[in-house]
């Protein structure tokens, strides 16, 4: 009986994922095109985290070449394409400098294209899971071209995010005041002595 419940649970999870996929994509698109603040600590954290994730991603892709030929090549090409796309996105982004910091609004068409790319990648992943299950059930060998293509898309998204955060971090550092500047502006003090004025109860300094 437990062996029969497990496939039903997996089918239920897959069904819920398919149902909630459009909702998650719409939310991703709405958040991606929204105006947001570039907080320095968050941008720096995202940059260093994505830089480390890129190194781990390329290392794992190199190790996976034993099972999937050309895996590292397609992962690297996808990552480089994502970096180039991120630089283009920085050029298309609208920036607003306010009193409380820097705000930016990504390009809506680029966000829409990336959202559709993520949707296509998820659909292809579902197809790949089905093909992997069918191949395992029939004992056939499944080529690794599909897997390498998915790795290229993942590298593109990772490289895009890294380049975008790098550009935001660079812009924030350029807009930051120098360390020698004072936090509060003050008028230059005059070398002349202060004048004394008389009040109702005597001289006041």
Provide an overview of this structure.
By secondary structure, the protein is mainly alpha-helical. The protein is 68% helix and 9% strand. The protein is built from five helices and five strands; from the N terminus they run αβααββααββ. The strands form two sheets. A three-stranded antiparallel sheet has the order 1-3-2, with helices on one face. The chain has a two-stranded antiparallel ribbon with strand order 4-5. A hairpin with a 2-residue loop joins strand 2 and strand 3. Helix 2 (40-63) packs antiparallel against helix 5 (145-175). The longest helix has 31 residues, at 2-32. The chain is globular. Mean pLDDT is 75; it is low at 178-205.
H-E string? HEHHEEHHEE
Beta-strand percentage range = 5-15%
Total strand segments: 5
Poorly predicted spans: 178-205
């Amino acid at each position: 009986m437990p062996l029969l419940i497990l496939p039903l649970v997996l089918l239920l999870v897959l069904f819920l994922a398919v149902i909630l996929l459009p909702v998650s994509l719409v939310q991703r698109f709405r958040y991606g095109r929204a105006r947001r603040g570039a907080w320095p600590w968050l941008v720096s954290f995202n940059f260093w985290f994505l830089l480390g994730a890129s190194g781990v991603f390329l290392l794992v892709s190199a190790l996976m070449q034993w099972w999937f030929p050309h895996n590292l090549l397609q992962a690297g090409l996808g990552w480089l394409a994502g970096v180039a796309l991120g630089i283009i996105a920085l050029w298309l982004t609208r920036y607003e400098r306010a009193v409380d910091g820097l705000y930016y609004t990504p390009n809506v068409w680029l966000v829409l294209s990336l959202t559709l790319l993520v949707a296509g990648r998820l659909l292809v992943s579902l197809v790949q899971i089905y093909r992997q299950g069918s191949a395992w059930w029939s004992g056939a060998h499944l080529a690794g071209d599909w897997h390498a293509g998915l790795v290229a898309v993942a590298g593109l998204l990772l490289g895009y995010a890294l380049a975008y955060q790098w550009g935001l971090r660079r812009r924030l550092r350029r807009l930051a005041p120098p360390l020698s500047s004072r936090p509060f502006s003050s008028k230059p003090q005059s070398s002349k002595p202060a004048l004394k004025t008389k009040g109702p109860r005597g001289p006041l300094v």
